[in-house]
Design goal:
Helix Hairpins, 3-stranded mixed beta sheet, single chain, about 40% helix, elongated, BirA Bifunctional Protein, domain 2, 8-stranded mixed beta sheet
């Protein structure tokens, strides 16, 4: 969440930042009103406490002089009741203030393009050339079914639409990709691997900004305060929740997890196959860094995600997302999109975001700077990368006229020497 002092001292700038996203600003006005009322109640309570202390001292002196203090003691008790009521009012207002503050999105960084939807995103660069085939490119679904590595019929019978079932070499390919990416991030990019839970509670989901805004898009366990994670960003960022980080900054963590999301696109749009699914695997990268370095760290994070795709020989492009297209918690975000010949389209495979101190304030993640002062860290995360669309791109870019698929050299050691998928 945003620092309440930032909202109080620069409300017009905060309103402008939220409006840059295309959002309305009622929560800001509510926060300002609750903050004003909270400070008013605190001032009144503090005044009464000071007066009660003064009178209490007088009672002791009067008793020594043998004076009757019955009336004064009744006054002190009455003041105590008023103070208790004011303290209760403060707690209630603070709860309302916190609830409204959770609903205010992060403020876009000054470098974020202006715009309210994806049409205003700005292409930063491209890498590689899409393949040119002497035959009509097939879709990943046609290729996968021809190869016998994707069984949508049985998956649908098990779980319904949006839950793919990879079989044989398809399952092996996904496992190979996970191991390849984790090894790359750990051995060469400097991340520490963690294997987190895939169920997280409300506090964890709120800490990273999934709640309250994204509640309808997540799977919640009935009768428990637990959600299936939509991304490993949630448990990995909460690694340091409510802590002062003792490890030297920056801290880089990476994890593989399955991910679960209810919202998988409009009905009938990209719903057959692997492009929009409710369950998918992903390798995630998370950083905890000093505020002064976070935008340099964002560029490095983006480079780590790009390195995965370069080593796989895939053509991709990098987009700077406009203010209206970045996530609720992000201050700046890049997307990486892969070219998929069978779709004749670019597919998002990674988002790399800087949240500044937005998540750290919600989750209570701090560190001590070089002067020993406690500050909130800046958090970053990026997909490194998501599996379903990566599989789509690998199948469609590696396809041959006979329906086989040539695999990237980087994966061959992870596939026990297999360099081609064939029926």
């Amino acid at each position: 969440m945003l620092d309440i002092r930032r909202i109080r001292e620069t409300p017009d700038k905060v309103r402008a930042g939220v409006q840059k996203r295309g959002d309305s600003v009622p929560a800001i006005d509510a926060v300002l009103e609750h903050d004003r009322r909270r400070r008013e109640l605190l001032t009144e309570a503090e005044g009464l406490k000071n007066e009660r202390n003064r009178i209490s001292k007088e009672i002791g002196a009067r008793r020594k002089r043998g004076e009757d203090t019955t009336a004064v003691q009744a006054q002190v008790r009455s003041m105590g009741e008023k103070i208790a009521a004011l303290d209760a009012d403060v707690r209630a207002v603070e709860e309302q203030l916190h609830d409204q503050a959770l609903r205010i999105p992060n403020i876009p960084h000054a470098s974020v393009p202006v715009g309210v939807d994806a049409s205003a995103n700005v292409e930063i660069r491209r890498h590689g050339e899409p393949p040119v085939f002497a035959f009509e490119a097939r879709t990943h679904v046609d290729l996968a079914e021809h190869l016998g590595i994707l069984d949508l019929r049985r998956a649908s019978r098990m779980s319904g639409a949006g839950f793919p079932l990879l079989v044989g070499p398809g399952a092996r390919l996904e496992r190979a990709l996970i191991n390849f990416m984790l090894d790359l991030h750990v051995r060469e990019h400097g991340y520490r691997e963690v294997a987190p839970p895939v169920l997280c509670n409300t506090d964890a989901m709120t800490g990273t900004g999934q709640l309250p805004k994204m509640a309808e898009d997540m799977y919640k366990l009935a009768g428990d305060d637990l959600y299936l994670i939509p991304t490993a960003e949630v448990p990995v960022t909460n690694y340091y929740r409510e802590e002062i980080i003792a490890d030297p900054l920056p801290v880089y963590l990476t994890a593989y997890t399955p991910c679960f999301r209810r919202e998988a696109g409009a009905a009938g749009k990209d719903t057959r196959g692997l492009i929009r699914v409710h369950q998918f695997d992903k390798v995630e990268m998370v950083k905890f860094v000093a505020p002064e370095t976070s935008y340099d760290e964002l560029e490095r994070l983006l480079g780590d995600a790009e390195d995965v795709l370069r080593r796989l020989g895939l053509a991709y492009r990098v987009l700077a997302l406009c203010a209206g297209d970045i996530s609720f918690a992000a201050a700046k975000c890049y997307d990486i999109e892969l070219w998929a010949p069978g779709q004749r389209d670019w597919l998002e495979v990674s988002s790399c975001s800087n949240f500044e101190d937005f998540q750290a304030r919600r989750a209570g993640i701090r560190y001590r700077d070089e002067h020993g002062k406690t500050r909130h860290v800046h958090t970053l995360n990026g997909s490194g990368v998501a599996l379903p669309r990566l599989l789509v791109a690998l199948l469609e870019n590696g396809q041959q006229e006979d329906g086989s698929v040539v695999l990237p050299d980087a994966l061959v050691p992870y596939m026990d020497g297999v360099d081609r998928l064939a029926p």
